[in-house]
Design brief:
about 250 residues; Conserved hypothetical protein from pyrococcus furiosus pfu- 392566-001, ParB domain; 2 domains; 13 helices; about 65% helix; about 5% strand
Amino acid sequence: MKKLHDLILSKRIKESKPPLQVSEETHLHGDLDSNGCIEPLVVWKGTRILVDGYYRYEYCHEHGIPFDIIEMEFEDEDDAILWAVKMQLARWNLTPFQKCEMVLSFEAGIAAEAKKRQGWRSDINGKRLGGSIDTRKILANMAGVSTGTLSYVKYIIENGDEETLRQARSGELSIYGAYRSLIQRLEVPAEEVRTSSTIKAAQSDLSSIKTAVEELIDRVRDGEASPKTIITELNRVAEMIDDANSR
């Protein structure tokens, strides 16, 4: 029955979700105003903790819009977050940066979950996880990117200013472009930039491009790269080359 259910909000679960872009928020609010809350919100059974539907929950309570809930069982909060992240990756039209940001927010939890569930299957490649577990590779597979791209995103999150993060999230700035911009600003003194030869910069660019190509070759060899993934990664390499040529 639809009503204004009072649920418990988890800071960790909420922070695992990417922030809405202005256009997405406008569309969501307009849809709720016009059609009500059609899709039930997902609640952790026996706890009243909201797992999926945070943006809808807050807007519905603010504007008195009733909604349904559906209860699901989870082993613990990490399990609930993992489920929510996988659902959002499949459902939302996210940029590659937003996908990486989501899975990185659960880096510690996904490692623990993977170790706990040796038979857990990845939604990306359908292979069993067992033996030695590479957390970074699991996260990259979930986001549909290379481990190199995931590393770039992690650096941007840890070092980027708000404007750089906004542009990277929206796709206005490529992941590699944002990474290179931060490297130049944060790790190279201004005077050195003016006086150093271009050889070091070129060597750095070539090294990054070589790493990206080698990672793609490995994924193709292991049968982990779909045609869509190959095209995405080749486009990323092309962006890296364009960025290098523009300097």
